[in-house]
TrEMBL record:
Protein name per Swiss-Prot or TrEMBL: non-specific serine/threonine protein kinase
Record's keyword annotation contains Transferase: yes
Similarity annotation: Belongs to the protein kinase superfamily. TKL Ser/Thr protein kinase family. RAF subfamily.
Catalytic activity entry: L-seryl-[protein] + ATP = O-phospho-L-seryl-[protein] + ADP + H(+); L-threonyl-[protein] + ATP = O-phospho-L-threonyl-[protein] + ADP + H(+)
Source organism: Turnera subulata
SMART domains: S_TKc (SM00220)
Enzyme Commission (EC) number: 2.7.11.1
Gene3D superfamilies reported for this sequence: Phosphorylase Kinase, domain 1, Transferase(Phosphotransferase) domain 1
Amino acid sequence: MQNFYWFKQISNNVKSERRLSLGEYRRAVSWSKYLVSSGAEIKGEGEEEWSADMSQLFIGVKFASGRHSRIYRGIYKQKDVAIKLISQPEEDENLARMLEQQFTSEVALLFRLRHPNIIAFVAACKKPPVFCIITEYLAGGSLRKFLHQQEPHSIPLDLVLKLALDIAHGMKYLHSQGILHRDLKSENLLLGEDMSVKVADFGISCLETQCGSAKGFTGTYRWMAPEMIKEKHHTKKVDVYSFGIVLWELLTALTPFDNMTPEQAAFAVCQKNARPPLPPACPMAFRRLINRCWSSNPHKRPHFDEIVAILEGYSESLEQDPEFFSSYKPPRDHTLFGCFPKFSSGCRSTCVKD
Ligand SMILES: Nc1ncnc2c1ncn2[C@@H]1O[C@H](COP(=O)(O)OP(=O)(O)OP(=O)(O)O)[C@@H](O)[C@H]1O
């Protein structure tokens, strides 16, 4: 706590506990003007349960940004937290409405989730045109940042397996609650100090029964399943597709389709059935799983229950035999492959022919 340079205590509007640049001061004041409680705001449905006690919230330095948000470190009730501040633009009513809907839905979903591999919700505040979501702070940052720091561009296979299992456990739990994440990617996976991974950012998540079509969607094309790119009806299997891309990231530490714009990547995935190329050294065990996860046919993608079971099997085998990944022989059931024998002559690693 001593290492923090607090510039703001929201409750009593203390303006500055450190020297701020003029820009920082203006920004801090412009947020605080909205966040300081007037005591007169109308509380929406369920709001009493998650509404933050502003007298207990300290906002520290900004450490990240999203498309429409800024993320600050902070302390809430003596706990280290991350505070996501979302501000509605005055000039764009549609965007303002969409951000409010996203906030409401993210809070409602986060509020009911409790799992070691899902970011823990702490509280939220709704003071239009500013909203805040307070969650536990994860010191390791995003998985994307971690992967991009790796030299050479790969991480040991036992770590790939551990990280993949954490993500799969989180996703299995999420799906067991009937929730689709819809924006699973390394940027939305956060690392704890102990290298545990937690799934975060539920801004465009939905209850499976209420997801509708993906019309007007703002997810991320490089990780997006073809049926979602095409704005078709979609199911939990869109997250399995994205998990396949995340597995590829874990094995390569690269950005998928980095030689293309997101729109070109979307076109290549839908029209040419393209996938990021698996490196020749990619162990067969992962190659098979990835090919199944990013199959263009959602029905051929496994459920997360099965993914967890497969990865746990790999983990046990690796404990017994450190050479497991090089000695692994796939089961003879060829229907489990992304590439079927009738296509195998022309099947390249970048292309799933099913
Ligand atoms: N609880 C947290 N602990 C540590 N870092 C966090 C936390 N929450 C967010 N971050 C960091 O902030 C970044 C953006 O957060 P988040 O994805 O929740 O914002 P967003 O507004 O939904 O972004 P976008 O809409 O662009 O996806 C994350 O990639 C991560 O680096």
